[in-house]
Design brief:
- This protein is of the alpha+beta class.
- Among the domains are: 161 residues, no CATH class; 78 residues, no CATH class.
- The chain has 15 helices and eight strands.
- It has a four-stranded antiparallel β-sheet, with helices on both faces. A two-stranded antiparallel sheet has the order 4-5.
- β7 and β8 form a beta hairpin.
- α13 runs parallel beside α15 and α14 packs antiparallel against α15.
- It starts with 9 loop residues before the first helix and ends with a helix.
Length: 346
């Protein structure tokens, strides 16, 4: 049965959101975002070489360029925290240990949009998960679901920062809009800023990607990681959770029951095992996970750095073998790691 209501009832939209498995949904007016929110960060060079952040800046700042006549932005929150023993010491950030979160959230968003279109066929919509030209954290804050913390992560009251976001634009209004971001609960706490080993956290929710280990281990795939950052990669080969692990607002995480976030076999591997991955093992373990973004050589390069940072002397034979690897970044990482081992007192 088709329901035609204007403005759209948020109570019904919340019901649809719950049906497809989103934990939270909020509603914001589709008003332009002040340009300085993005452009000042870009001008400071904090995007590193992620040129795509600036290429569609106009669309990021004004969603009506993505959906003409945009009136409402829906923001969805998914909790991804799991406490699985087999991945307790994984060198992979928590969000990337299971199925690729893009697929998980896209499936939820697709299911929501299907239900939404059945109920409101006259309403046009545009949605994306992470990779699209939408400033998801800004919209989630405007939708009243939380706020951007000092570590640049989006922080919610029920789930802390262990969340992932999806966004949907409508060309119709809803009956109730959020008043804006929820109260900032960081206060005077600076644990995340003080704990970041590379000084990537600039405060006020800003992150300098050039110094962020998440950027260096995921987006910086083609070259070498600066030496001052390599030494901080002990047991870090894809992403970094340090600023979330130390956050007091994450002390009592809510466990998700979503099995798509359950760690896959690759999350149970140690750094040495990842450094030693064969192409066949990579093809078996990595596709379908977010780790594919770093690619085969990127993961092995990162693992070699991590072995050097931790000065794992038992890794010497493996690193010596990697010094002859066809991939230059892997070779250079292994050579650097061996130099770190040479500095270990006998």
């Amino acid at each position: 049965m088709t329901v035609s209501v204007s403005p759209l009832p948020t109570a019904h939209l919340r019901q649809l959101s719950e049906q497809v498995g989103f934990e939270l949904v909020g509603f914001a007016r589709a008003e332009p975002i002040p340009s300085e929110v993005l452009l000042d960060w870009l001008a400071a060079g904090c995007a590193a070489d992620m040129d795509w952040m600036g290429e569609r800046a106009a669309e990021r700042l004004d969603v009506s360029r993505l959906l003409p006549g945009a009136k409402t932005v829906l923001s969805f929150v998914t909790n991804y925290y799991r406490d699985d023993a087999q991945a307790a010491d994984s060198p992979i950030a928590r969000y990337a240990r299971g199925r690729d979160y893009h697929s998980t959230l896209r499936d939820k968003l697709k299911a929501f949009r299907k239900r939404f279109s059945l109920a409101y066929p006259e309403v046009k919509h545009y949605g994306c998960v992470d990779s699209g030209p939408l400033m998801e954290k800004v919209w989630a804050a405007r939708a009243g679901l939380g706020y951007v913390g000092k570590n640049g992560c989006f922080i919610t009251e029920p789930f802390g920062s262990w969340v992932l976001l999806a966004t949907l634009i409508l060309d119709a209004e809803v009956d109730v809009f959020a008043d804006g971001p929820s109260a900032d609960r960081c206060g005077h706490c600076r644990k995340c800023i003080m704990s970041c080993p590379t000084g990537a956290l600039l405060g006020q929710g800003r992150v300098d990607a050039r110094a962020c280990l998440s950027y260096q281990t995921i987006e910086n795939r083609h070259g070498e990681v600066p030496e001052s950052f390599r030494v901080e990669m002990d047991n870090l080969i894809f992403g970094c959770d340090i600023c979330q692990d130390v956050c007091p607002l994450n002390r009592h995480p809510v466990l998700t029951s979503n099995e798509r976030f359950a760690p896959r076999a690759v999350a149970g591997l140690g750094v040495m095992e990842i450094a030693a991955l064969t192409p066949e093992q990579y093809a078996e373990l990595v596709p379908g996970t977010a780790l594919a973004r770093a690619r085969y050589d990127g993961l092995r390069r990162n693992a070699a750095y991590a072995l050097g940072a931790s000065k794992r002397v038992e890794a010497r034979p493996l690193l010596a073998r990697l010094c002859d690897d066809p991939c230059a970044p892997v070779r250079h990482a292994a050579q650097w790691a061996l130099r770190q081992l040479d500095s270990v007192s006998p």
